[in-house]
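FIELD: query
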Amino acid sequence: MGLPSELTRRRPDVLQAEARLHAATAEVGVATAAFYPDITLAGNMGTESFSAADFFSLPAKQFSVGPTLNVPVFEGGRLISTLQFRKAAQREAVLTWRNTVLNAWREVDDAMTAYAKAQSTHSLTEQSFFQNRAAFNAARERYQQGATDYLNVVATEAALLSSQSALSISQTRTETTLVALYRALGGGWQYAETPSSASHS
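FIELD: result
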């Protein structure tokens, strides 16, 4: 049974680790941007006049438009320390995310193995149940026809009841391992019901 790798991203622990990684990466970007000059465009207009008569004339008006440059010259040590700290936090977030994803896939692989094994066992148990049921029906029919004694009917019925109990236990185990797989994937996985499980539901 194969599953798309995107399914593990639905797990809460993987989502949380991924969010922390994105946040740490963004912080590195912010710390890096702090090294660049801060340029602010500003404009102002003033007036200069020497008499009331020409106060509103065009030559009396002053315009000033230009950038304001703020260079972090004396903050280099602090900025470098901040950047190094953010990069270290990002590396830690990467390791945490990687370990979280690997652990998630290990749990998924274990759950898939257990589910596949339970399905295989259930299939064999189901075959045994059908065989014992057929044997019981045949023994009962032969007894009714007088072709065999009642002890044969009792023996085949006991085998049928035993296999029926084993089938019920096997079905429960299969469903339990499927739930474990569902939980390992973080939920939200839709699966197709097998004909055997549908017939015994």
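FIELD: remark
The helical segments are 12-33, 76-144, 150-184, 195-200.
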